[in-house]
Design a protein that fits this description.
This protein has about 220 residues and is of the alpha/beta class. It is built from 8 helices and 8 strands, in the order H-H-E-E-E-E-H-E-H-E-H-H-H-H-E-E. Strands 2-5-1-6 form a 4-stranded mixed sheet, sandwiched between helices. A two-stranded antiparallel ribbon has the order 3-4. Helix 4 crosses helix 8.
Length: about 220
Amino acid sequence: MPDVAAGAAPEMDAARAACTDALGVLAAARPDLLVVVGPAGQSGYGTFPQGTPGSFRGFGVAVDVRLGAAADTVSEGELPPSLAVGAWLLERTGWADAPIEGLGVGERLAPERCTELGRATGARAGRVALLVMGDASACRTVKAPGYLDERAAPFDAEVARALGAADVTAVQALDAGLAHELKASGRAPWQVLAGAAEGADLSGALLYEEAPYGVGYLVATWS
């Protein structure tokens, strides 16, 4: 987010452009429901209705967001950071193509539970689209949040290959323990996506892959 990145914002221009392209793919799918999925701490587990607010004030910037248009149902909670970023992306691109819900997933959720949750999410409506948030490893350099771990680059390369190819089996096979050690917060949300995509015969495209700040960032689409 430019407001959070401040002077470093131009470094992420390509990533933001890729996110815009990915949202275009979601809109073109003409879904009946969009579910924003992302990692969350314990207070952010579970579902969030359309209209739930989020904020980046904890990062020192006075930026507030909302998960889609305000709804009749008033949410008592606040979006976890990953879903707040998703809401910001949707606001930035003017999403108005389908109703929206949020789903916060525990980063340590077991792969088989992620698959079950994905299947249930995919059955929420006739045509369900997922906007899935989550970083790859945070251990790519000595200045990374998790310092340098030689396992990080190969792990991220396999993630990029699997997501770029819409390889459901490979995503489901990602090692939860290794992902946790490498601080890859996206592992559980990706596996929710894989559960939702079982049997859908989707194709994938990798739109962006870099490791700014020693953290694996990638953007991919399944359609």
